[in-house]
Amino acid sequence: LITDEEHHKLSKRCGHSSFEDLLEQGFLTEAIVNFVALLGWSPADNEEIMSLDELVKKFDYHHMSKSPAVFDYTKLKWMNGEYIKKLDFDKFYEMALPYIKEVITKDYDLKKIAKMVQTRIEIFPDIKEHIDFFEELPDYDVAMYTHKKMKTNAQTSLEVLTEVLPILEKQADYSNDALYKALCEYVSEKGCKNGYVMWPIRTAVSGKQMTPGGATELMEVLGKEESLARIRKGIEKLSE
User: Which of 18, 26, 110, 195 could be a cystine partner for 124, CB 3.0 to 4.6 Å?
Assistant: First the structure.
């Protein structure tokens, strides 16, 4: 018997009782097979991530359990995330593209965006919440500029953004490496840590606490004009 986390028999109502349900929810075939094979059975070595061939080789009915197996949705998502990480990038991009296009309509390098999220998602629909800020800067709270570990607050962030703005206005090359180099020069002149500068910039360009890439990676995708507009908006918010 297979039950849900509350130990009730799995039913159609729970939305993951069929293989097709799971495919629609953004799970990979290989991850579903791997997960289902381990319901009520486990190999002697307790290995969890296995290909179909490995499952065939290792299967031994002596290791089957008589008690009901729990369909742990959280574990399935984790397993799917492990499979997504291992996907060939071109294959991942092909599968991720419809989800990216649901959110992004602007002329951005979608491959760069896909690269950022491949190691950060567990199922394909997760992509949208990771990248929505590229399309439009959300209305965020300035409290986000305060980060204990980075030693930043609204005041220090305003100072940093005001000082880096002319540097970024002069910067012609908006590739990740060139931006990082320019900002590292500012960091060493200021005599502070990287995070002290990168945190406020990342907050200003994304408006989010968690992002799939660092400040300069995001700016490379957004481009010069949009990055500067967002930093000016950050200065404006912090000045209020």
Answer: 26
DSSP 8-class letter at 68: P
- Check whether residue 107 and residue 81 sit in a common domain: no
Structural domain harbouring 200: 142-239
Q: For residue 16, what is the domain's CATH number?
A: 1.10.1160.10
Tell me the CATH number at 205.
Answer: 1.10.10.350
Q: Is residue 79 a contact partner of residue 62, using CB atoms and an 8 Å limit? A: no
Q: Are 222 and 134 in contact (CB under 8 A)?
A: yes
Residues 78 and 97 in one domain: no
pLDDT, one tens digit per residue, over 62-93 is 888 888 898 899 999 999 999 999 999 999 99
Q: Is the pLDDT of residue 2 over 90?
A: no
Distance separating alpha carbons of residues 38 and 68, to the nearest angstrom: 12
